[in-house]
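Incident log, structure service

09:12 report received: a user says their structure output differs between two submissions of the same chain.
09:20 pulled the input from the user's history:
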Amino acid sequence: VATEDRQDLQAVIHLCQKEGPKIAFHKDDADGIISGAMLKFLLREHKPIPVPLSYNILRSHSILAHLGQYDWIAITDLIPFNIKPLYIYCDHHASAASLTKNAREVIFDPKAPSATSLLFQRYESQLSNFSLLSRIVKITDTASYAIPAPVKIIQPQTASFDELVWLVNDACKGPESIEEVLEVLEIFAKEQDQAVFNPLLVEMAKRVVGKRQHSLQIAQRLTPAPLVILKIRNQTISDKTVLYELLAHDEVKVGVSITLR
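09:34 re-ran on a clean worker, output below:
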């Protein structure tokens, strides 16, 4: 497990050791965070404790076995790893198709665009105030953006729908700790569609936009060539932004990015 994942794992174990049922959700994108917020809202009478998890952490069989022993009430956008029965399991990844899903309610469809969409379809009457977020995540989780990634700060009060898509996408990628992920989830759970106007989400998105701005400046200083290979050591650089900028030149035919951890 990488150093950053070890730090996250310590925070995760601390959350797992708290009394009460827990919700496991994928912490690194809008689908995981917003579907986690939906579950917290749906199961609010149980006062669940949201627990953010990464795919990297769950690749360790020993960690997976340890986490499975805790009291889980729901899992979304992750493989099933619980031992005791869940109340709700929701996912859309084909990798989970053959895995045992020990839950009272299994919501699984590998053809669905997102876990958020699956939850919204199943519980639409209860999640009616998540309709905008459900539409947004359908786009973010399939990367079917209508406009390029922004390099300027989006103000939600004057934003178009396509700009709001990027605002939510970036806000969910902006957190730098487990605590910040939980702050973002809490905003979505409480404010639902109105969360897009929350100033904290704008601040989180600013981090990602700033990273793109920095990366764009770097790309503009590089000399285009037929083959471009990027070795990324610094997490403040967006390899996609650099590659997309370079691939806009006719002389660049192939671009490859290697992230060194």
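09:41 both user submissions now match this output. Likely a transient worker issue. Closing.
09:42 reviewer note: The first helix runs from residue 3 to 16. The chain has a mean pLDDT of 92.
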